[in-house]
Amino acid sequence: MDEAATCRSAAVDAVEDVYPARLRDDIVAHVDAGSLAPGTLALRCARAVDDAVDDDAIGSRAAGVQLIYDGLRLTRTLAHTEPWTEVDDQTQPNLDILAADVLVARGFYLLARTDAAGRAVEVVQTFGREQTERRDAAADPTRDPADHDRTLERDVLDLAVLAGTTAAGGTPTPELYAYVADCNDHVTDDGFPNELDFLPTVAGLRGTIPPEEPTADDGVPQSAGDS
Q1: Which stretch of DSSP H or E encloses residue 162?
Q2: For residue 148, what is the domain's CATH number?
Q3: In this predicted model, what pLDDT tens digit does every residue of 29-41 receive, in sequence order?
Q4: Is the pTM of this model over 0.85?
Q5: 27 located within any domain
Q6: Residue 153 to residue 189: CA distance in whole angstroms
Q7: Structural domain containing residue 108
Q8: Residues 115-140: pLDDT tens digits?
Q9: Per-residue DSSP letters for 177-195?
Q10: What separation in angstroms does the CA of 204 have from each of 29, 89, 201?
């Protein structure tokens, strides 16, 4: 199973118990409609630390990043389009609002008690502030509201790096964050591209992560007194 498929499978599994079925189907539809870049990057960062890592074993970390992004991306879309103002039947807009909440909540749950938990909270808090700033910018002809949209993708990339590297026992470096930041050049008004060829490869990511320091016992024969 490739990385994107692993991420999607873990994300769908994480919402499998959501009820009613219509809400669950709506959630899965939003995952499928968007880019799997955040979760895929988290998996690649983990493999950059340890190429033997089991993708399925760290899939929940990738899914956590993915679900938070999908939930905030949906929230952003709803805030910009306000679909409830264009229809008499409010069922679908209300369902989408609930889906966005569930996506973020499940993402938090998957990242709880991990090294990425605090950063996940910061991503959501920053998103809220930026969307407030966006509303203010929309009323000011000297400002561009779009400047406050793409901070979500920037922050989610950082979250993916942290979640992925720490899942495999590594520590993200400033060089790794800077390397991944180039992905921001590919972000559009709709978010990350669905085609994932803009993401760095595992080999490229590995070049920004220092090798593990050898322990005292690595490659050193034990003396009789040590046994």
Answers
A1: helix 151-167
A2: 1.10.600.10
A3: 999 999 999 999 9
A4: yes
A5: yes
A6: 11
A7: 3-209
A8: 999 999 999 999 999 998 888 887 77
A9: HHHHHGGGGG-BTTBS-SS
A10: 32, 49, 5
